[in-house]
């Protein structure tokens, strides 16, 4: 009873590790081939055998139980079991046989399997190597591409390639040594690129400095062309205004627009600047290049601002200023297009440095100038420089201030030159009427200055009323106006007409008028020359209107403004005064010559008994001289001037006749002498009347005629020939017939009057009653004049 449980325990313990599937398969009689194959494939046939033994033992226990319970059946079962054992032995043999065969077959397969596994390992290594090689090849290709870009000078793609290597593939390189080489070369390549672009930029600095002068000259040339077009437009405007003012036909206006693209004309390459700036930006050292650019350009400017010490400034000012203009045109383009390479404050700082230096140079050079034309030439170029740089937004006010501050110096030089020229033409002028044989001469010397006396074209040869110095002086004045306007224009001042007018007055008064007065006061000329000088002054006074109009036209001032009475030149009034000075000088010359002729009155027989039948000799000389003077004056002077000369001469003759009666050379005179003087007076009066009418002076409607200028001498002769000279004391008669006579002078003359010459026994001679009455009346006059005195 005790054995059975023990076996059960053993049997139960033997159940441990039995595969349920195997048991089920055996129980169900299924094919155990797959299980056996699996056991061998997994390399655990012993386990299968152990399980099979365990199953066998288990089955044996079960068999024993069955046998014990079913003995007979057990016997039968034992027999069957023995058959099973035999089958099992056979199966075992078969298993061993199959296992042996399987081992034989599997050993070859295992060799193949080992080979296959080794191939798998090789494949894996090769794949990894290929991946590594692929990465390295990519990096190598990028390096080659980068080198190619650098070789071809394409630095931006080279940097982009470096960026791809540095940020994209560098960390993925599996070969550490290769990665370290790449990491070491990247900074070197960047430094190489930086040096390369800096080298190109340095070459550009040299090139652009050599081109700056050409750039500046081209830009200034454009400004000059624009100024020329503006002047042509103003000329057309003035012409249209003149036509409108003169009542001409309708004016046709056209608009001519010419657009010039500055960038297309001013061609210069900034590519090296852009590229260098961009490369430095890509390298992350943008500020470094900003500072490098600014310092190098500032050094170049300082070199450009140094004037040549071996060349006169007059010759070097254009390249000097053109170089500066080109410099700042380039800087303006860089400021606008280089993407922040320059700031506006930096450009302003550079410009302030340049303009400060330029103003100092100009002030120094202007102070040394001794020729107005030199100063004007430099000024013209400076204003063109200012106009050019103003287009680019630069402030040029200090430059214009220098020109304004030098305008007095310029006009002083210009006035000195004009003074020398005017003095020269006056010194070489013979002061004879100018003869023009051709129409072009008339246009050049008369019409061009509006000094014609008539709007009709004269018959040639034409004898002008002025001498050759007048058109020459007008040309000098006109040239002065042009030069003055040229200096004052385009300097920022919009209204400079008043300034031109001031300097024009200064020229006409201090130079031209003073030179004429010096000639007048010199007194080394004859009457005809003095008359010609007076005529010249009158013509020049008339030309002042043209000078003012010409100045206004050049200044763009409307004609209506100039024609206002208060807008005239002060010089016109001064020249009018100088005309009077010239007339006085002429009058003095005429009077001096007349005095020479009137001195011949001393040859008159003042104590003659009989009245002469003819006029005295001196009066013929006087009349010939007067005729010559009036005829000459009529040719070159205005009627007003002829009137002045005639009145002055005849008045002087009248005064000279009266003075002769008063002179100590005439101790006494007779009625016959008075009668001879009366004859002379009649000839003078006849001449005066004829000339007053023939010259057209009567049309002037003057209150005093030529005859009236002889009134004092005529009234004196009439008084001395009067039958009742005592009527002089009658206020009414005296006012009517003797109003020009002075009491004292009449008293002195009457004291010298003797009715007849003293003769031996003269008191015994017979006198008619008329003579006695005249004598008594004269004696009464003398007495009453004495009492009056």
Structural class label: mainly alpha
Write out the strand line-up for the largest beta sheet, numbering strands in chain order.
1-2
* Beta fraction: under 5%
Uncertain spans: 1-16, 248-265, 757-767
Residue share in helices?
A: over 70%
SSE order and pairing:
Layout: H1 3-14, H2 20-28, H3 33-41, H4 45-69, H5 71-151, H6 155-169, H7 176-245, H8 262-265, H9 271-283, H10 286-304, H11 313-337, H12 344-368, H13 372-391, H14 397-405, H15 407-427, E1 435-436, H16 439-445, E2 462-463, H17 469-488, H18 497-522, H19 527-555, H20 559-562, H21 570-598, H22 617-636, H23 639-662, E3 669-670, H24 671-694, H25 711-721, H26 731-737, H27 743-752, E4 753-754, H28 769-788
Parallel strand pairs: 3-4
Antiparallel strand pairs: 1-2
Helix pairs in contact: 1-4, 4-5, 5-6, 6-7, 7-9, 7-11, 7-13, 9-10, 11-12, 11-13, 13-14, 13-15, 15-17, 15-18, 17-18, 17-19, 18-19, 18-21, 19-21, 19-22, 21-22, 21-23, 22-23, 22-24, 23-25, 24-25, 27-28
Summarize the structure.
With 789 residues, the chain is mostly helical. Helices cover 75% and strands 1% of the residues.
What does this structure look like?
Belongs to the SEC15 family. This is Exocyst complex component. Keywords: Coiled coil, Cytoplasm, Exocytosis, Transport. One of its GO terms (cellular component) is membrane. Residues 398-752 form the Exocyst complex subunit EXOC6/Sec15 C-terminal domain. It is built from 28 helices and four strands. The protein has 789 residues and is mostly helical. The longest helix is centred in the first third of the chain and has 81 residues, at 71-151. Helix 7 (176-245) crosses helix 13 (372-391), helix 11 packs parallel to helix 13 and helix 23 (639-662) runs parallel beside helix 25 (711-721). It has helices at residues 3-14, 20-28, 33-41, 45-69, 71-151, 155-169, 176-245, 262-265, 271-283, 286-304, 313-337, 344-368, 372-391, 397-405, 407-427, 439-445, 469-488, 497-522, 527-555, 559-562, 570-598, 617-636, 639-662, 671-694, 711-721, 731-737, 743-752, 769-788, and strands at residues 435-436, 462-463, 669-670, 753-754.
